[in-house]
Specification:
The structure is a single chain. The relative contact order is 0.15. The longest helix has 23 residues, at 55-77. The chain is 80% helix and 0% strand. The chain has one domain (2-102). The chain is mainly alpha-helical and 103 residues long. The protein is built from four helices and no strands.
Length: 103
């Protein structure tokens, strides 16, 4: 169950990262409120996962999910550039997440 909570925390982190830009430097109240709520929810879920998982493993997986999700979302939605180097870096991160789960 802790791994599912951790995956959910990572998904919320991806949403949180995507919610930052619409705040326009935290000058727009509703997007800012959404950003804060998502950030708090992501950290809360991470803390719940850490009840059963090692702190280092949980945090590494959490941030890895966030990084991969942010890059993929950026490429698909915001048309960010995708290079071979970025693909290789993301592959290493995903491999690390899988290894952390198996170890």
């Amino acid at each position: 169950m802790s791994w599912l909570v951790l995956l959910l925390a990572g998904a919320v982190e991806i949403a949180w990262v995507q919610s930052i830009k619409p705040t326009e430097n935290f000058t727009r109240p509703l997007p800012t409120l959404l950003c804060v709520v998502l950030g708090v929810l992501a950290v809360y879920l991470l803390s719940r996962a850490m009840n059963q998982l090692p702190v280092g493993t949980a945090y590494a997986v959490f941030t890895g999910i966030g990084v991969v999700g942010a890059v993929v979302f950026g490429v698909l939605v915001h048309k960010d550039p995708l290079s071979l180097g970025r693909v290789l870096a993301l592959s290493l991160i995903v491999g690390g997440i899988v290894l952390a789960r198996l170890a």
